[in-house]
TrEMBL record:
<keyword id="KW-0812">Transmembrane</keyword>
<dbReference type="Pfam" id="PF00672">
    <property type="entry name" value="HAMP"/>
</dbReference>
<feature type="domain" description="HAMP">
    <location>
        <begin position="298"/>
        <end position="350"/>
    </location>
</feature>
<protein>
    <recommendedName>
        <fullName>Diguanylate cyclase/phosphodiesterase</fullName>
    </recommendedName>
</protein>
<dbReference type="Pfam" id="PF14827">
    <property type="entry name" value="dCache_3"/>
</dbReference>
<dbReference type="InterPro" id="IPR029787">
    <property type="entry name" value="Nucleotide_cyclase"/>
</dbReference>
<dbReference type="InterPro" id="IPR043128">
    <property type="entry name" value="Rev_trsase/Diguanyl_cyclase"/>
</dbReference>
<feature type="transmembrane region" description="Helical">
    <location>
        <begin position="153"/>
        <end position="175"/>
    </location>
</feature>
<dbReference type="InterPro" id="IPR029150">
    <property type="entry name" value="dCache_3"/>
</dbReference>
<dbReference type="InterPro" id="IPR001633">
    <property type="entry name" value="EAL_dom"/>
</dbReference>
<feature type="domain" description="EAL">
    <location>
        <begin position="527"/>
        <end position="782"/>
    </location>
</feature>
<dbReference type="Pfam" id="PF00563">
    <property type="entry name" value="EAL"/>
</dbReference>
<feature type="domain" description="GGDEF">
    <location>
        <begin position="386"/>
        <end position="519"/>
    </location>
</feature>
<dbReference type="GO" id="GO:0016020">
    <property type="term" value="C:membrane"/>
</dbReference>
<dbReference type="InterPro" id="IPR000160">
    <property type="entry name" value="GGDEF_dom"/>
</dbReference>
<dbReference type="InterPro" id="IPR052155">
    <property type="entry name" value="Biofilm_reg_signaling"/>
</dbReference>
<dbReference type="Pfam" id="PF00990">
    <property type="entry name" value="GGDEF"/>
</dbReference>
Amino acid sequence: MQFNSLKKRITFVFLTLILVIQFIGFIAIRHSIGTNARASINEQLQVGEQIFHNLLDQNAESLSLSARILASDYGFRQAVSSKDIETINSALANHQSRINANIAMFFNNDGEQVASAGEDAMNEDNSKISQLLMNARSQGDANEIVVLNNRPYQLVVVPVKAPVVIGWVVMGFVIDNNLAMRLRNLTLLDVSFLIKDKDDVWRSETSTLGRSSLLDLTQSMPRALPSNSMNTEIEVSESTYGSRIVNIFAHGDQSMVAVLQRSISEATEPYRALQFKLLILTILGAIVFVIGSLITSKRITQPLTELAKSAEKLEQGDYSTVVEVKRKDEIGNLGRALNRMREAIAIREQHITKLAYWDELTDLPNRASFIQSIAQAIAEGANTNKPLSVLVMDLNRFKQINNVIGHRAGDQLLKKIAERLKANMHATHYLVARFGGDEFSILLPNTSAEAALETAKSILQLLEKPIEVNDQSIDLSAGIGVASYPEHADTAELLLSRAEMAMYATKSSGAGALIYDSNHDVSSQQSLTFASELKSAVETNQLALYLQPKIDLGTGHVIGAEALIRWNHPQKGLIYPDSFIPFAEQSGNINKISMWMLAEVARFSGEWQHEHHLPAPVIAINLSARDLVDHLLPNKIQEMLTANKLSNHAISLEITESSIMDDPKRALNTLNVLSDMGLKLSIDDFGTGYSSLSYLKNLPVSELKIDKSFVLNMENDKADVNIIRSTVDLGHNLGLKVVAEGIENQNVWTALEGLGCDFGQGYFISKPMPADQFGKWLESWTATNKKSKDLYKKMK
C-alpha cells in the first residue's frame, strides 16, 4: 500500500501501532486466561481427589461402625453360636437398611457364607470375598474395593468374637452413579469410574457424563497408567477436559480408576465476556485514534506544506519570500532554519556566481567569463567588420619556480603578474583573464593578428623585469599564442583553442610568441597519434637498446657505456629519442620506458657476465623526473639486478637537474636510498639547469657530466673553455669525477685531458651502437688503442 501524503502515513502508522499493540495484548490475555484456567482446573482436580478419598474413608467408617455394632450384638452372637439362620438374616437386613448398604453377609470361621441381606448380595464372586477374609484374618479386619459381578463395591470385613472369632460380617456399598453424583455436587467436577479387565479395554457404567461422552472417554483413556495419580487433557465430545486419573486398585489383570474432569471451555467461559469487551474497546479506541491522528497529522502537515511552497520558491531562485513563523515547537524551528538557509543560499549564490566567472586569487575574469567576452566581442565585430585578437600566455618553468619558492609565494607571484598585466593593459581597454595555474589570456578588441603579435612581444619584455617575492628576485619568461577573428576562427571557443595551439607551439619551438598557423592543428593531431603509438611500442617491444662507450681520457681505457634508446617504428623506421621522449613524458609513458631500459640493461649485463666470465662494463641509464618520485624505484632496480645475478655496481644512474627540481624533497629521498644501495649516481647535462649549486652540495652523486653544448664549440669559444675549466675544478673540489659529452675530434680530447677532465664520450670515440655490437667494438678499440692494449690483455 502506498500513501502519497504525510497525513495518511501518520494515520496509518499510528493506527497500525495501536492495532498491533491491542492484538499482542489480546493474544497475551488469551494465553494468560488459558494458562490460569488450566492451573485453576489442576488445583480443583487435586482438591477433588482429596474429597474423593475422604468420601471413601467416610463410607468405610460408616460400614465398619455398623458391622462392628452388629458383630458385638449379644443376640446376634447367640444366633451365630446356635446357628439361627433366620435371626442372622434378620440382623443383617436390619443393619444393612439402617446405613443403606448394598451388601450385608455373614461367613463362618471356615469362610463359608451363612447368611446375606441386600439386593446386591450374590454368591458368584465368593472367591474374591474369600481373599478379603484371608486379609482380615491376618490384619484383624479388612477394607477394600473389589469388583463383584462386574460392579465395583467398597467392602469392610469385621470379626464376630465370642470370645474367639466365630465368624465374619461383610458389609459394603456399591460404587455407582449415586457416589459419582455426590462427588460432583461436592467438587463441581465430572466423575467417571472405569474398570479394565484382562482384555485391556476400559469400560464403565458409572459416570456423570452423558453416554456418548463416556464412550469417548473410554476410547481416549491411555492404556498404561502411572502408579500415582496423574493430570492430563482428554478430548471428550469435541471438548477438551482437564482430567485427573486416580488409581483405585489393581488386582492382577483387573484395575479400576476414578477420572475427575473439568471442561476447559466452561472454565474460561466467564472470561469470554471480558475478551469481547476488550475487543469492543479496541475498535472504539482505533476509531478515536484515527480521528485524533488525522487532527494531529493535519496540524503537522499543514505548516510543512507551507514550508514546502517556500522551498519551491527557493528552487525557482526567489530568495525574497520570508517564511512567517509563529510557532515555538520543532516546526517553528524548521521554519526559522529555512529562513536562515534562504539568506545563506542567497549569499553563497552570489559568491558562486562570482567564482563561476572570476578568478579568486587574482580577481581577474576566468575562462568562462573570458569566453563570454570573446563571444560578445565577435558579435560586435561582425557588425563593425573590425578584427579582434586573443593572446594566451603560459609561464615557463613555473612549476620548478613554485617548488623552489613555495606554493604560497607562488600565489603571490601570480598576483603580481596579474597586477602588472592589468596595469599595462588598462590604458588600451584590453581584457586580462586567468585560466588557472600559470596561464593568462588577453582579449584585444579592434586588433589584427600582426598588431597582437607586437603586443605579445611587449608583454614578454614586460616580464623580463624581475619580480620581488619574499625578498627573492625572480626572472620570468613565457610563451604566447595569438589567434585573430575572423582570420583564424569565427567562434569564441575555436578562437581561444587556436590561440592555445599557437602557445603550445612556442613551447616546442622555443619562440616567445607565435601567430596561429594551420600546421599547428596537424602537429597537435600528430602528437596525439605519436603518444598512442609510443605506448604500443613499449608493449610490443619495438624499442632497441643502444650503447655509447665512455673512456678514461688519460688512459684510453673503456670504463663503461651510456645506455640510449631507439624506436624501430613499423612505418617511419628508426626514430631517435629526441623525437619521442618528450611525448613519453607528457603522456605519462616515460616510466614504462625507464623500466624497459633498466630491464634491458640488466639482461644485457647478465648475459655479458655469463659469456665472458667477467664483470660487464658499467652502463649508465638516464632517469626522468617521474622516476625519481616513485618511492618503489629502488625495490624495482634491486629486483632486476638480483634476477640477473648482478652486483649493485653493474649500473649507474644519470639524472638531470631539471628532473630534481620538479619535486626536490621526494627526488632527494629516492636518490639517498639508491646511493645507500651502492649505485653510482651522476648529474647529466650539468650547467643547463636551474639553481644548480644550491642542490648539488646536497646530492649523493659521484660524477658530473658536462653538457655537449659547451664541448662542441670549445675550440672556437674561450667562454666555453672557461666554463668547462670551472666545472672540472668545481667537481674535483667536491670530490666528483667529471665526464665530457660531445668529443668530436682528437683536439677536443687533448684539450679536455689538459683541463683535467676525467672521462669522455662522443662520436670521435664511437657513435651509439646496437647493444649486440658492443663486444666487437670493444675488441677493436682495445686492439687499436695503444693505451688500452695492456688492459685488454689482462682482461683476457
